[in-house]
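Hey L., structure's done. Input below.
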Amino acid sequence: MSTENNAPTGGLLDDSDTARLAAVRDLYDRIDPMPSGLVDQICFALTMDDAEAELAELVDAELAGVRSTIDAEMEQARTVIFESSSVTIMVSVTPLDADRVRVDGWLSPEGVYRVELRTPNEQLRESSDDTGRFVITDVPSEVFRLVIRLPESLASKDNPPVVLTPSISWN
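Output:
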């Protein structure tokens, strides 16, 4: 690949270049390995099913202690608020056990919305009541995002009929 004075020749990689690049890759695999599930999470985030959707923006997130119904220990619930031009979404995630959570949500303005909770492996569907409240129980403890389908009364040229939240993770 190089001439005697070590200047590049502009040709293809030779075996010694390939060996050096492999050594660099192995080094980074040892000192900074790719997190497990990263490829699946990237594919999940890039899903283009709702290309015309509006992306809600995270505006607030907090942890709060809540009393478990199973025992007297304190559990952690996470409350997250998202806003878009057409809807405000407040979500509270409460652990049920090590593998499952409960998701409580409130949508404003009030109305009946179709709500879809997407994980990399599942899609769970629910509708809000007429006040905008919804509950999705027994959700796997993994990253998820919400897809909110607006009532016809709120969808317009300026308000796309679908709003997506960024991915939510509590682990």
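The domain at 53-164 is CATH 2.60.40 (Immunoglobulin-like). Confidence is low (pLDDT under 50) at residues 64-75.

-- N.
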